[in-house]
Specification:
It is globular and about 75 Å long. With about 350 residues, it is α+β, with helices and mostly antiparallel strands. It contains eleven helices and 14 strands. Helix 4 runs antiparallel to helix 7.
C-alpha cells in the first residue's frame, strides 16, 4: 500500500509537468502535440512518446520527465539511452541548458523553452520566463542551516527517525530548524510522514542531487577556507598516513573511493584552527596550493578514526571543479556507493 502511494505521488507530479510543458510548447509554436498515458510507460528508459503533427507529418519523440536538471546530474546526461530522446522538466539553469544543447540533448521546460532537434523538426526557444509549480519556492530545507540537516539525512539512513534534539546536535542547528526543514521536505515531496514518529525519504537520488547543487551554491561559499602547499615536497597521498583531526575530501577522497585517477588536489574539512593543522602537516600558505582546508560544518561523530568525508560531500567537491576527469569520477563513485552511505 505504501509503495503504491509513493508511486501515485510521483505520477501526479510528472503529469503536471508534462501537461504544462506541452500546452506552452504548443502555444509558442502552433504545433499540435499529443502524448500517451503516463500510467502505461513506453519502455524501461522513457516515460512515454510525444507525437508532434507538423505540415501533415507525424513525428514521435520518446520522452523522460524530470522535475529539474542540475549541474550535479551533468556526469549522467550523455548516457541517456537513446541520446535523441527528449527530457521534459520544470526548470534548468542557463548554464545547464547550454550544456544540454552542446551535448545535443533535447529538452523542454514547462515554460515552453526548448531545444528539440529531431527528425524533421528543429525548435529552439529560450525567451520565455520561468514558471514555478505551486509550492516549489525556495525553502528552509536548502538554506545554510537546512543543508546541514539534509546532509545528515543523506549520510545516515537512520537519522531521519532521530529525535529533533539528537539530529540538531549532530547537524549543529536548533530544534526549531529541524522542524521547519522536515515540514518543507514533506511539502515538496522529498520526505513522507508515516506516523508521528516515523518518516521516510521518497526519492534519495533527487534529494542527493538537489543537496549537492544547493550546497555548492549556498553553504560552500559561507565556509572558511584557505589553501596550502607542502613545505617539504610531499605528495598529497601522504595525508592518508598522517595523524590529524580532520576529514579528507575532494579529488584525494575520490581517488581512495574510486581507484580511477591519481588526485592532484585535496580538501581537508577541519573543526578548529587551520594554522595549528598546517604546522602539524608541514604546510605553508599558498593561494595556488594543492591542499585546501575548509571549515567543517557538522559536529564530530563517535568515529574518531574516520579519514574520508561522506559520499555526498565527495561528490559535491568534484562537481564544484567540473573538469571532465572529475565529472567521470563523480559518476563512478555515485554508481558504486549510491545505496551504501560510506
Amino acid at each position: 500500500m505504501y509503495d503504491k502511494i509513493i508511486f501515485y505521488i510521483f505520477i501526479l507530479m510528472e503529469q503536471e509537468i508534462l501537461n504544462i510543458a506541452i500546452k506552452n510548447l504548443s502555444t509558442a509554436t502552433g504545433l499540435m502535440i499529443e502524448t500517451n498515458d503516463l500510467l502505461k510507460p513506453f519502455n524501461n528508459f522513457h516515460d512515454g512518446v510525444l507525437t508532434i503533427f507538423n505540415k501533415g507529418v507525424q513525428i514521435e519523440i520518446p520522452y523522460t520527465i524530470k522535475r529539474k536538471i542540475t549541474v550535479a546530474e551533468l556526469p549522467f546526461l550523455q548516457d541517456l539511452p537513446p541520446k535523441k530522446g527528449l527530457i521534459i522538466l520544470e526548470y534548468a539553469s542557463k548554464s545547464v541548458k547550454e550544456q544540454l544543447k552542446r551535448l545535443e540533448i533535447n529538452y523542454l521546460e514547462i515554460s515552453g523553452n526548448a531545444y528539440i532537434s529531431f527528425d524533421k523538426i528543429y525548435i529552439f526557444i529560450n525567451t520565455n520566463k520561468r514558471i514555478k509549480l505551486e509550492g516549489n519556492d525556495s525553502n528552509a530545507a536548502f538554506s545554510k542551516t537546512g543543508l546541514k540537516v539534509v546532509y545528515q539525512l543523506l549520510i545516515n539512513k537512520n537519522s531521519i527517525d532521530y529525535s529533533y534534539r539528537n539530529l540538531g546536535e549532530i547537524s549543529g542547528v536548533s530544534i526549531d530548524t529541524i522542524g521547519r526543514v522536515y515540514g518543507e521536505l514533506i511539502r515538496d515531496k522529498y520526505v513522507v510522514k508515516i506516523n508521528n514518529r516515523k518518516h521516510s525519504i521518497l526519492d534519495y537520488e533527487r534529494l542527493f542531487k538537489d543537496w549537492v547543487t544547493l550546497f555548492n551554491k549556498t553553504l560552500r561559499p559561507k565556509l572558511k577556507k584557505r589553501s596550502f602547499r607542502f613545505s617539504n615536497n610531499q605528495n598529497i597521498q601522504s595525508l592518508f598516513e598522517a595523524n590529524f583531526s580532520g576529514e579528507i575530501g575532494g579529488e584525494l577522497a575520490a581517488e581512495k573511493l574510486s581507484k580511477y585517477n591519481i588526485a592532484e588536489k585535496a580538501n581537508i574539512y577541519v573543526k578548529g584552527s587551520f594554522v595549528e593543522l598546517a604546522m602539524k602537516l608541514n604546510l605553508r600558505p599558498d593561494s595556488n596550493g594543492q591542499v585546501t582546508m575548509i571549515e567543517q560544518f557538522w559536529n564530530d561523530t563517535s568515529d574518531k578514526n574516520k579519514k574520508v568525508v561522506d559520499l555526498p560531500l565527495v561528490y559535491a567537491d568534484l562537481i564544484s571543479d567540473p573538469k571532465p576527469r572529475n565529472l567521470k569520477t563523480a559518476k563512478l563513485i555515485f554508481n558504486e556507493y549510491f545505496y551504501q552511505p560510506i
